[in-house]
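User: Here's a chain of 61 residues. Predict its fold as tokens.
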Amino acid sequence: MPRGLGFWIDGDGAVLEGCDVGVSFWSVHRPATGTTHPVMSDPSEGAWPLAHLHETFPPGR
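Assistant: Prediction complete.
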């Protein structure tokens, strides 16, 4: 299982994601709307399906 952390500017927001053995995390902050949406999970693979759903159908858009 790869471990890592990523931070980047994604269009109109900042994204932070990472994982380690047994946990995963994804968060986006969109300054234009003042919203932050974190996803935390146990197990390692758990955050990605919900993060993908959020990116496909973002709240408030």
